[in-house]
Amino acid sequence: MPLRLHHHRLAPAPRRTRAAASWAAAVADHARAGRHAAALTVFRRVLAAHPAVAAADELAYSALLRCRDARLGYQIHAQACRRGLAASNPVLACSLLAFYSADLPAAARLFDEMPRRDAVAYTAMMSALLRAGDWARALALYPRMLSAGAGPPTEHTFTNLLALCASRRLCCHGRLLHAQLLRWGADLNLVLKTALVHMYSTCGFMARAHAVLCSTPDTDVVLWTAMIAGHSRAGDLQAALRMFISMEQAAAVPPNAYTFAGIITACASSSAQPQASQTGRQLHARVFKFALEHDISVCNALLNFYSKSSARLLDLVHVFSATDSPNVVSWTAFISGLARHGKDEDAFAAFAEMRASGVQPNSFTVSTLLKGCSSSSQSFLHATKIHAYVLKTSLGSLDVAVGNSLVHLYSRFARMDDAWAVATTMASARDSFTYTSLAKGLNQIGLPTKALELLVHMFREEVRVDGFSLACFLSAAAALPSIEPGEHLHCCSLKLGLSSQVPVSNSLINMYSKHKCLENAKSVFHSIREPSVVSWNALISGLASNVCYYEALSVFEDMTLAGAQPDNITFSVVLYACAHGGLVDIGINHFNSMRNSFGVSPQRSHYTLFLDMLGRAGRLTDAACTIEAMPIRPDVSMSGIC
């Protein structure tokens, strides 16, 4: 039965007795502790015993508003307005603002009607705007508060706005707030220190975050964990480990579950580094010391770590088995690890088991599963079932991650009608990745003209052309008989400021080489500040394919002198140039230098090219000896050379 606060005759509020004040305090204590039913019960008793006192007690009103009972809140608001408490009592007004935080227009009207707005009221309105996602108005409210002379900002004012700056990567605003905090002489307690460290570390300014950490001696596990998480996001494993050691040894602060999750995530992000795998395993062992091996955040971090860095599938399976109640993050990391290990069938089975256990996949789960599909027909069949699930649940109707994964999948299997159908349903969610996948698929099936037509769609839809998409379109232009489209794309790269990107330059070298414009290809190569091995390979291949064998080998010598490390493709092109140029002795030297000088193990393709070179020169005895000595089994093509 709802409370009828309005049925009492309104009279001037009597002086509160000590007994009545204790009732109100009891209501506030229950509400503050989250015991909302108990708070309502106490207030009903107060209302029955002292109706006039209870109906005029703003302390009880403020406490009851925390109970989030909509009907009761509206009654309290009406009663407060009739008695003039909403305008005269700032504490009650701020409680009403917090109550209306889910109804932003109502909160804004209440805020505008307040005759006296102090810093607490402004902070409450900022909180309401932040909950509604209107971060720009929340941020603009701060200078308005200062110009209105509402008093010094509170601790909650700074923590709310600093959290906003962290979430939106607004480092300039965050630095201004830091300066304002110092200007007002606010006490830099642990709450404010943590908010500042979180803001600076999220924005990537770890030196400033460290300066805040060292500004006062007070620290706790939350503050240290924020520093470790910042270094983890920056991919700096060594700095994260130094923070972890300093926290335990210098500050004598024991880590918690979130600390371990942050440092293990840093190991996962640095999985390419040799020491990352060993460090992650050592941290896994330390987790047991603190009895955190079943904590969901730690388990999820370990699953992510082992899915990225471990060559043993059992490591991933053991951690997942130790997770008591896996959530969607756990299942997604597990599925991702199975896909990385080439266990497509197991990944799809895990997806089915996840749904059967009552955990609903999100768009990231689906996109991860689709991206991990191999090129087998069975995996494609499973992927189409996932597509059916997406359509049934409407999970990917407007989701760019799922849509792009499906477009990429169908394009990879040359199912361009299906890929285009998915891209069509994405409507305004299409981005550069969508069009790049479509262009790759069209290039793959030999339709470069259709691929280039997608560029027109991108410009019409104002989709940003990035370096990867432009490189894909340049590959399409390279397959055309006319060089004109490729030259237009070169001009486009200059206009868009993408010509300095190495993937674009590599594609330009390839395009000009295929159209026999070697001077243009060499000009593009020389414009690259730091050529990659792909850049060198593109130029050497372009020269060799245009019968410039000596020049191709000369560029290879330049490559080694420049300190670039040749790879398998480099030596394939070099052996091709030697074979077709009749440079047998040079080719033998380069073949022998593969393993001895550059540590590149000859593959089947290299032996085929080498034997072809010997066969063209009529050195059949050397070719036969090579076949007998090579560590791989010869195939029909090799035997045919001799």
Verbal overview:
Helix content is 72%, strand content 0%. It is mainly α and 642 residues long. Among the domains are: 1-83; 560-642, no CATH class. Helix 7 packs parallel to helix 9 and helix 15 (221-233) runs parallel beside helix 17. The longest helix has 17 residues, at 377-393. The radius of gyration is 34 Å and the shape is elongated. The N and C termini lie far apart (98 Å). This is Pentatricopeptide repeat-containing protein. One of its GO terms (molecular function) is RNA binding. Keywords: Repeat, Transit peptide. PPR repeats lie at residues 118-152, 220-254, 327-361, 431-465, 532-566.
Overall geometry comes to elongated
Strand content: under 5%
Helix content, binned percent: over 70%
Rg calc: 34 Å
Q: In terms of per-residue confidence, which ranges show pLDDT below 50 for 5 or more consecutive residues? A: 1-18
Number of strands: 0
Whole-number average pLDDT? 88
Helices, strands, pairings?
Layout: H1 18-32, H2 36-49, H3 51-55, H4 58-65, H5 70-83, H6 85-88, H7 90-99, H8 104-113, H9 119-131, H10 135-147, H11 155-167, H12 171-183, H13 190-202, H14 206-213, H15 221-233, H16 237-250, H17 257-269, H18 274-289, H19 296-309, H20 313-322, H21 328-340, H22 344-356, H23 363-371, H24 377-393, H25 400-412, H26 416-426, H27 432-444, H28 448-460, H29 467-478, H30 484-495, H31 502-514, H32 518-526, H33 533-545, H34 549-561, H35 568-581, H36 584-598, H37 604-616, H38 620-629, H39 636-641
